[in-house]
Amino acid sequence: MGNDAKKTIAVLGGGAAGLAAAIAAAEALRAAGVSARVVVYEADERVGRSILATGNGRCNFSNAHVEADVYRNTAFVGDALAELRCQACAADGVCQLADDPVHAFFADLGLLWREESEGRLYPLANKASSVLDVLRAVARERSVIEECACAAVRVDAPSKPGERFHVRFADGRVAHADAVVVAAGGRAARELVPAGTPYSEPRPVLGPLCTDTAVVKQLNNIRVRCAVELWGKSGEAVADAAGFAEHAAGGRSFKAREEGEVLFRDYGVSGIAVFNLSRFAEPGDLLLIDLLPAVPAAECEGFLHTRRKRLGVAGRTVTGDDLLRGMLLPAVAQAVLKEAGLRESAPLTKANVPELARALKAFPLVVRGMGDARQCQVSRGGFAVEAFDACTMEAQGVPGLHVVGEALDVDAPCGGYNLHWAWASGILAGRHAARIAEAGR
Ligand SMILES: Cc1cc2nc3c(=O)[nH]c(=O)nc-3n(C[C@H](O)[C@H](O)[C@H](O)COP(=O)(O)OP(=O)(O)OC[C@H]3O[C@@H](n4cnc5c(N)ncnc54)[C@H](O)[C@@H]3O)c2cc1C
């Protein structure tokens, strides 16, 4: 299994970060005129299956406006993205601030794409396979070797200078390598990085949330455009609180806010806004749903009073039902009236308006935990970034060993940012691994 003396870079995992690392390594070796092998060891029967599943099969592979502050471990990611940019400037001899280096990487592979809402980038062919096709074609052309059905179980670092890494596989085979890139994703085995590297157990996030079911059961499969705030007992605020929510949060502190679509399910809530909040949610936290985001909180009562007056022309009695008809779907209106303690058919008095405004602007749901882990898009946790060099992804205590992508404790909201990180960290690690092979370390 590749135990000859030829310099070898072993990439463990043939997903997004692994393929980017392998291509970047092979390109750097070719540019330096160094003869070395780049081998991708993939546990699955084929490389890139994880890429095919992204973006509902369309692969939202990046974002037009990537900023480090959307990521967990912002400073580390910021340094990594800045380094990638510096490398691009150094290679071209000019500072191309306008060109994102990850986008340039894909343009060089031949991928065309288009921008959709909120800067999301999708391949022009609208199929994830189009992203994988260009990656595999260039990898083949650069003589990257794919070894599939090879699950790495342990990596032993060289015990003295001049020795090589020993990569052990589930079937008992062992491969030797001069540099290793661990790109095994969010559930990467801890043993792939030598002991002592700080690590936290990954937990699935960026998925649906389970909440109290009494309310949501009645709303199953209903979608609403709204704003949602997450309030909890602990946790740092990641945005500014806005609106009515403060009064409704019962002593909790503000954590995060999202605008977009929420899909009610019989177990809780789903949709992109909820996925993004799930990165910060803990059991016991409160979701406060603003069902009327177009009306500022301070104006909501006035808005409802005016509406009540308008609908009550010619002495007509206005019920809660009347007031919400044409504003919300009937099932949602029912839930709001119940939350406000009002009966649908009872006349709505002036005195009822403040409670109705609160229920509309801060409809509460208690979080019970994450929903189905299979729907979660990333894992939070893994290898702590403090143990790695942000410019190379090399482990501080283990020269030649790199960890990239989701295996590191980096995650971001929906929008192409997670894949962007996978490519960016993979490219940095691949280039550095090539330098190690070149230097004969
Ligand atoms: C359903 C879904 C949709 C998503 N959609 C998007 C999206 O549109 N945009 C976006 O930015 N992000 C999206 N993500 C997140 C994105 O897919 C990940 O952030 C990204 O794939 C992480 O890249 P990675 O290379 O670190 O891990 P992965 O892509 O998961 O690759 C890891 C690879 O390593 C292999 N492997 C694991 N263990 C071993 C081992 N021991 N030995 C050898 N190989 C091993 C795995 O089989 C896999 O091929 C989505 C995720 C999911 C689940």
From TrEMBL:
The keyword Flavoprotein applies. Its cofactor is FAD. Keywords: FAD, Flavoprotein. Residues 8-431 form the RsdA/BaiN/AoA(So)-like Rossmann fold-like domain. The keyword Methyltransferase does not apply. Pfam families: HI0933_like, HI0933_like_1st. Residues 254-375 form the RsdA/BaiN/AoA(So)-like insert domain. NCBIfam families: aminoacetone oxidase family FAD-binding enzyme. This is Aminoacetone oxidase family FAD-binding enzyme. It comes from Gordonibacter faecis.
